[in-house]
Design a protein that fits this description.
Blueprint lengths: L4 H17 L7 H32 L3 H41 L9
Length: about 110
């Protein structure tokens, strides 16, 4: 069996409880800021980490040092790429879309023909 059904059920219950109780938690500003920072590059990290770890495993083999080097390289590269592509890119695209749609559709509902 690939997974334990009891463990999977307990994880599902824990997730449901966390979702239900999360709005009542008060998190510190540091925790919220660091979570927002990590979320800013998480998609880029998701996209690149496998390639980096695959390369390191093929070239240097398995080991704790390989893991930590891959972890460090993946996160640093994802932070840099995330800054330029996720954060700045999103701001540029949102600004462009807002300008485009505001100019084009500013009076779409109030046209008199």
């Amino acid at each position: 069996m690939e997974y334990d059904p009891v463990f999977a059920f307990l994880i599902a219950v824990a997730i449901c409880l966390f979702i239900d109780l999360a709005p009542s938690f008060k998190f510190s500003k540091i925790f919220c800021a660091s979570s927002k920072f990590i979320a800013g590059y998480s998609y880029t990290l998701y996209l690149i980490h496998y390639s980096i770890f695959d390369f390191l495993l093929k070239e240097y083999g398995q080991g704790v040092l390989t893991f930590w080097i891959g972890f460090l390289i993946s996160n640093l590269l994802a932070m840099a790429m995330g800054y330029f592509f996720e954060e700045r890119g999103a701001r540029i695209v949102k600004t462009w879309l807002n300008q485009f749609f505001n100019k084009r559709n500013s009076n779409i509902f109030f046209r008199r023909e």
